[in-house]
Structures are given as structure tokens and as C-alpha cells.
Amino acid sequence: MNEEYIAYEGQEFTVEWYFNSGGKSQVLEYYKALSMEERIKLLRLFKRIGDSGELRDKTKFNFEGDKIYAFKPQPFRFLCFFFDGKKIIVTNAFQKKQQKLPKNEKERALNLKMDYETRVKRGDYYG
Predict the structure, then answer these.
(1) Which of 38, 51, 59, 60 would disulfide-bridge 10, Cβ 3.0–4.6 Å?
(2) Tens of pLDDT along 21-50?
(3) CATH number for the 7-122 domain, one of 3.40.50.2300, 3.30.2310.20, 1.20.1180.10, 3.40.718.10?
(4) Global pTM?
């Protein structure tokens, strides 16, 4: 696997950026466009869940339904899901502009989750 897609490797979880079949990762590009301070806020959340296996603060990490979760470094949202092998796959990101999670962002996360699972099952996600 391309090491570039590992966001954080902890004792409990490895946090990875989702990438498409062409090797591109919208969420990684979004992250790279953030300021250093904003990136550090997100990486602290990755480290906490990666090392301890949990992040109980709902203002920092929240279940959004349908097996989708959100890392919440204000004012951004990074949607993700858990996968076998103690992995958290971060699918997409956006800047929060309203109280509720935008339906299109959650649908996007669900579609990317399905794509990831299909490609892993076929054996060509990491190949």
C-alpha cells in the first residue's frame, strides 16, 4: 500500500485516506489545503482515536448514522467509517455551514464506503 494514504497509525486503529481507482484522494487534497494549525487539530483527533481506540467527545467525533462517523475539527467535517483490520477510512471532507450534516456529503461517504469495500473484496484496492 502507498504509505501516503496512511494518515495515522496507532496501537488501536490505523487511519487512512480513501483514494479512488485512479489513485486520487479528494479528502487528502482537502486536508493538504488546510492551514498547518487546522491540520494539527485533525491529526490530534486521529492520534487520540488511533492510540486509545475511542474518542467519546461528541463535539470532536460523532456517529452520523448508516455506519458513517465524522471527525469534527471546527469548522470542518471529515467523514469516515470503520473497516476490518482496525482501520478507519476517511472518505470526504467539507466546511460546516449548517447544523445538520448535508445529505449529499453523507451520500458521498456511503458511496465511497461501498466502493472501498467492493475494491478490497476484489483485491485491487491496495494492489
Answers:
(1) 51
(2) 999 999 999 999 999 999 999 999 999 999
(3) 3.30.2310.20
(4) 0.95
